[in-house]
Amino acid sequence: RAMGSSSAAPLDFYLTSDTFACDLALNGETSVGRVQLGGDGSAFAYVSRVQCVVAPDGDGGVILTSRGGNPTLVRPRHDDKWLQVHPAGAVHHLMPGDAVALDKKKRAGTVLTLRGPRWQWQAGDEWHDFHPLVAATLERARCRGMPRVDVDAERLVDLGAMRQLRKDDPGRWRAVRREAAAPAAAASAAD
Question: What is the CA radius of gyration of the chain?
Answer without folding.
Answer: 18
